[in-house]
């Protein structure tokens, strides 16, 4: 399928009742080095990817202090600051890194405060539009981690609070303390364990940000996605994104890449419309 497209083709979703963005975002994890560790091999290309995303009407960029660590946020500011009107930069805190492939939760309030302050500095912002708890920490009461974000919002450093990698029970517990503007969970054609969270997104009106659109496979390894892609002259990733978009108007996919060409392919998925035959094949 053609790659000359706009993220606006996917429609829009509203985050926190006020931040209206095109419903196909960009995940900035893969603009870092191998293993999501250190700087990218080509820093100029990473900046080109970010600028091209904005040219393609992407209005939502998702990152985290742990991507690099710190590298992704630094690149976003280098490439895009001062940010264009309407662009929402979302980031996350609550994971620490010891090296490539090493991801450890740290939900202590003092750590989350330190992480938030670092993100503000690197992104050159006075307030994070959407700040997400990256993952619950089993060593810290969940309510304490969420409570820390509530305090930071009351101080004006966070506009909206989101969660990532949470269950329905954890979501409900968080909602006892605060409004939740978004949930970011793994979700794709093969991994639908977050269907119950997505159902709540429909019922309650928060944004649902699926990650791992092809389930960690190499693109094309999933035979169902590959078969549908062949019918449409599309890529398996484009079909995976179109499937996610079809699940609910609250879904805001955030595919990531370090390549301008792949970015353009991903954004073009916003105009792909699947058929009943496609849905039957994908299940």
Task: Describe the structure in your own words.
The mean pLDDT is 96. The chain is globular, with a radius of gyration of 18 Å. 38% of the residues lie in helices and 18% in strands. It has a single domain, classed as NADP-dependent oxidoreductase domain (TIM Barrel, Alpha-Beta Barrel), CATH 3.20.20. Strand 10, helix 6 and strand 11 form a beta-alpha-beta unit. Helix 1 packs parallel to helix 9 and helix 3 packs across helix 4. It has a seven-stranded parallel β-sheet, with helices on one face. It has 283 residues and is an alpha/beta fold.
The name of the CATH superfamily reads NADP-dependent oxidoreductase domain
Mean pLDDT: 96
Number of separate structural domains: 1
Question: If classified by CATH, what would the architecture be?
Answer: Alpha-Beta Barrel
Strand and helix order: EEEHEHEEEHEHEHEHEHHHH
Please give the CATH class.
Alpha Beta
Query: Distance N terminus to C terminus?
Result: 23 Å
* Percent of residues in beta strands: 15-25%
Descriptive terms for the model:
283 residues, alpha/beta, TIM Barrel, seven-stranded parallel sheet, 10 helices
Give the helix/strand layout.
Blueprint: E1 12-15, E2 19-22, E3 26-27, H1 43-55, E4 60-62, H2 71-80, E5 88-93, E6 95-99, E7 102-105, H3 109-123, E8 128-133, H4 142-154, E9 158-164, H5 168-175, E10 182-186, H6 195-204, E11 207-211, H7 223-232, H8 236-247, H9 260-268, H10 276-282
Parallel strand pairs: 3-4, 4-5, 5-8, 8-9, 9-10, 10-11
Antiparallel strand pairs: 1-2, 6-7
Helix pairs in contact: 1-2, 1-9, 3-4, 7-8
């Amino acid at each position: 399928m053609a790659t000359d497209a706009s993220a606006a083709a996917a429609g829009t979703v509203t985050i926190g009742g006020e931040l209206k963005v095109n419903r196909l975002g960009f995940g900035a994890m893969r603009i870092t080095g191998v293993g999501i560790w250190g700087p990218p091999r080509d820093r100029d290309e990473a900046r080109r990817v970010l600028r091209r995303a904005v040219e393609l009407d992407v209005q939502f960029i998702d990152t985290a202090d742990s991507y690099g660590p710190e590298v992704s946020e630094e690149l976003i500011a280098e490439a895009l600051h001062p940010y264009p009107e309407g662009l929402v930069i979302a980031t996350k805190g609550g994971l620490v890194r010891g090296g490539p492939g090493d991801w450890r939760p740290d939900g202590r309030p003092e750590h989350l405060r330190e992480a938030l302050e670092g993100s503000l500095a690197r992104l050159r912002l006075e307030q994070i539009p959407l700040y997400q708890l990256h993952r619950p920490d089993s060593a810290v009461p969940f309510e304490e981690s969420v409570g820390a974000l509530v305090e930071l919002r009351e101080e004006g450093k966070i506009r909206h609070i989101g969660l990532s990698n949470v269950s329905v029970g954890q979501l409900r517990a968080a909602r006892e303390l605060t409004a939740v503007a978004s949930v970011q969970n793994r979700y794709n054609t093969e991994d639908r364990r977050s269907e119950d969270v997505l159902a709540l997104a429909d019922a309650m009106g928060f944004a649902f940000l699926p990650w791992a659109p092809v389930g960690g496979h190499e693109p094309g390894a999933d035979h169902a996605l590959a078969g549908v892609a062949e019918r449409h002259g599309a890529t398996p990733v484009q079909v995976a994104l179109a499937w996610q978009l079809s699940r609910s108007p609250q879904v805001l996919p955030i595919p990531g890449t370090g390549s301008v060409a792949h970015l353009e392919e991903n954004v073009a998925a916003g105009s792909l419309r699947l058929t009943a035959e496609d849905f039957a094949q994908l299940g």
